[in-house]
Amino acid sequence: MPGMGIVERKSRQKQALRERILDAARRIVMREGFAALSMRKIADAIEYSPATLYLHFASRDEIAQALCAEGYAQLLATFVPLAQIADPAERLKALGRAYVAFGVAHPETYRLIFMEDPSYTGAALGGAAGAARKGVDGALAAVVDAGAGAANETAEATVAGTAAAGTTASGKVNLAPAKPDDDPGDAALHIMLRALEELKAAGRLSASMDVAVWAEAFWATLHGIVALNLTCPVFPSAPLDTVVGVALDTWLGTQPAGQPQGAAKSTRAGKKKSAEAPAQSHSEAHAESPAETGVKPATKPKAASA
Amino acid sequence: MPGMGIVERKSRQKQALRERILDAARRIVMREGFAALSMRKIADAIEYSPATLYLHFASRDEIAQALCAEGYAQLLATFVPLAQIADPAERLKALGRAYVAFGVAHPETYRLIFMEDPSYTGAALGGAAGAARKGVDGALAAVVDAGAGAANETAEATVAGTAAAGTTASGKVNLAPAKPDDDPGDAALHIMLRALEELKAAGRLSASMDVAVWAEAFWATLHGIVALNLTCPVFPSAPLDTVVGVALDTWLGTQPAGQPQGAAKSTRAGKKKSAEAPAQSHSEAHAESPAETGVKPATKPKAASA
DNA sequence: GTCTATAAAGAGATAGAC
DNA sequence: GTCTATCTCTTTATAGAC
Predict the structure, then answer these.
(1) Whether residues A93 and A180 fall in one domain
(2) Stated in angstroms, how far is B36 CA from C10 C1'?
(3) What backbone torsions phi and psi does residue A49 show, to the nearest 5 degrees?
(4) What is the pLDDT of residue A5?
(5) Which residue is nearest to nucleotide D5 (CA to C1')?
(6) Do B6 and B37 share a domain, yes or no?
(7) What is the pLDDT of residue B47?
(8) Is pLDDT of A17 > 50?
(9) Which of A161, A247, A272, B193 has its Cβ near the most Cβ atoms within 10 Å?
(10) Which residue intervals make up region (Disordered) (chains A, B) (predicted)?
């Protein structure tokens, strides 16, 4: 019977190999696309035999789902600092831009999470707890909780003077109990819903609007932009940032329309941001992973022998 | 040397077999998903040998692209009658609803065209000419062309009285030359752009808005709704029609700002879709194809042997 | 725990007989 | 045109030696 330290060392080693497997898998997915992910390739990459992988993961699917949870946690992590933005509309815009930036910066990860198989999406949204507990989720849950109190008040201090608000703000916010442990995959949703409640309280969103519906439609817009960008060769014809900007302005009622509905800067100077428009740069985004862009993932094997 | 009639008969027979191949392929894709489409399965379905398929299609990819072009033409066909709607905002709403309905009614076809491989999307948008020429495209091109003249005037007769319009309407419409033969895949885009120009002329869209950008962002919203609906297990929590309604109202500026509009019954009783929520029903959609819904397409082979 | 070896299945595509 | 037969390659997953 070995001492406790030996057991721990073995456990650490097992965990380490598990991480190496996931690292290799992630690299393959990023470079060649998810379709090219195979047990053999992973085994080759980590210089183990394929059979060893099955001691850590029951199947290729389990590896894929672990990658999904990881990637989703990474996405959530980019939201954390943005949840502190005082103005709810600006907060939502920043979240939207970060969402699109993530999808553009990590196309294959985004594909795997949101465009491949429903079970993968489910693994990411529901199973992000496991991967996210590794550090991200704690911080996020803290932010979400803090948002219920502190962020709300700072937002009021900044915004409340604009319109007749404050009446419904205090009483109705607890409509979203925001149990952070309940479903960590919904953390992003909670951030959005809170911002929407503030927006509504400030009179900048129709009081009759169902915030849950608005949030889903808003999400769909962002997802559509990312997904078309990844799949459709002719999208977008205008710079991506321009399309995102129009979408955000439309959803948040800040568009320079003939009549602004909520509260907007009446008219803008030029036509659009045709001049600058850095387009796909997104230097604001995440520099963690080694440039997932550029390589055609090749869902199809294409020609190999001739 | 055979007579000309014999050559024609042979050509017809060849075409007929080509159609049978595509029919079988379409059925497989609809029932088992695109990933399950293989030359052998097609051959089995039509009771020919796999080698025969290669006399009609150079590769599996070519079959897939033909299916894409077909499906896209089918989608365009559902737009044709809607292009006659006089009010441009209502026309765009109807187009949007038809788009979503198509995606929900033909999930695997939609996936193949817009969510799988960029080359497939390209084949649909650019190569729809070939498949569409079979009858759909002619009608569509006619509608598009007629739209430049007739539909525009009916729209003016119905709408123009609303706001101060008419000044820019006549002079600027030819901004979109609408060459129907040029790129038939863009026919849908042209329909949208025309509606947007009318909207702008009527003062119901900001004069500074770039209609091309608006159109792409609008498309992205619709695509996002369909794509999430097909991939994300928890989307939507509210009935799909409600989400679509909010999106359309937001984009077309018909949202309440205090008063509830067409859809969205102000407040809901429960939290989520616990109570009613028919969700995926959509009986309004197309009944042409044999119920592509319901069966899990299984991108992955999953368990087969044990 | 890790390996070698292999089973079992399936894919796309082609050569050559008829 | 069509078929038989096959080549080549890939995959997931497991059995059993060490």
Answers:
(1) yes
(2) 11
(3) -80, 155
(4) 80
(5) B51
(6) yes
(7) 97
(8) yes
(9) A247
(10) 254-306
Q: Are A10 and A157 part of one and the same domain?
A: no
Has residue B301 got a pLDDT over 70?
no
Nearest protein residue by Cα to C1' of nucleotide D15 = A51
Co-location of B72 and B127 in the same domain: yes
Chain A positions touching B224 (Cβ under 8 A) are 219-225, 227
Do residues A240 and B217 touch, judged by C-beta distance below 8 A? no
Residues B188, B70, single domain; the answer is: yes
In the stretch 58-77 of chain B, residues with CB closer than 8 A to chain A read 61
Domain CATH number, residue A240:
1.10.357
Query: Containing H/E element for B214?
Result: helix B211-231
A169 within a domain of the structure (yes/no) = yes
A13 touches strand C (CB under 7 A): yes
In a 13 Å sphere around the CA of A224, the CA atoms on its Cβ side amount to 25
Taking CB atoms within 8 Å and a gap of at least 24, the contacts of A237-241 are: A237/B212, A237/B216, A238/A272, A238/B210, A238/B212, A238/B213, A238/B216, A239/A277, A239/A278, A239/A279, A239/A280, A240/A100, A240/A104, A240/A279, A240/A280, A241/A273, A241/A277, A241/A278, A241/A279
Q: From the Cβ of A302, is strand D under 7 Å away?
A: no
pLDDT tens digits along B164-223: 333 343 333 333 444 445 555 678 889 999 999 999 999 999 999 999 999 999 999 999
From CA A206, how far away is CA A214, in angstroms rounded? 11
B215 and B103 share a domain? yes
Residues in contact with B86: Cβ distance below 8 Å, sequence separation at least 6, in sequence order: B151, B154, B155, B157, B158, B159
Q: How many CB pairs under 8 A join A and B?
A: 187
Q: Please identify which residue in the block is written with the tokens 């799909």.
A: B240
A303 part of a folded domain? no
Task: Report the gap between the CA of B227 and the closest CA in chain A (Å).
Answer: 7
List the CATH number of the domain containing A52. Answer: 1.10.10.60
| Torsion region of B201: left, alpha or beta (phi above 0 gives left; psi -120 to 50 gives alpha) | alpha
What is the extent of the structural domain holding A210?
A: 65-251
Determine whether B265 is exposed, middle or buried from the number of CB atoms within 10 Å of its CB (0-12, 13-18, 19+): exposed
The SS3 of residue A235 is coil
Q: Does A23 touch chain B (CB under 8 A)?
A: no
Tell me if B305 is assigned to some domain: no
Please give the Cα distance from B110 to B79 (Å, whole number).
15
Measured distance CA(B237)–CA(A211) in Å, rounded: 12
Q: Any chain A CB within 8 A of the CB of B203?
A: yes
Whether B245 contacts B262, CB under 8 Å: yes
B10, B25, B57 — which closes off a domain? B57
Helix (H, G, I), strand (E, B) or coil at B239: coil
The pTM (predicted TM-score) of the whole model is 0.79
Q: Which positions 95-154 of B are in contact with A (Cβ < 8 Å)?
A: 114-119, 121-122, 125
Point out the least confidently predicted range of A141-155, A183-197, A277-291, B100-114: A277-291
Looking at the structure, tell me whether residues B4 and B93 fall in a common domain: no
Q: Model confidence at B40, in pLDDT bands (50, 70, 90)? A: very high
For all residues of chain B together, what is the average pLDDT?
76
What does the radius of gyration of chain A's CA atoms come to, in whole angstroms? 22
The mean per-residue pLDDT over the stretch A282-305 comes to 44
How many domains would you assign to chain A?
2
Nearest to A194 by CA among A82, A303, A100: A82
Q: Alpha carbon of A306 to those of A35, A297, A301, A303, B58: distances in Å?
A: 22, 21, 13, 7, 14
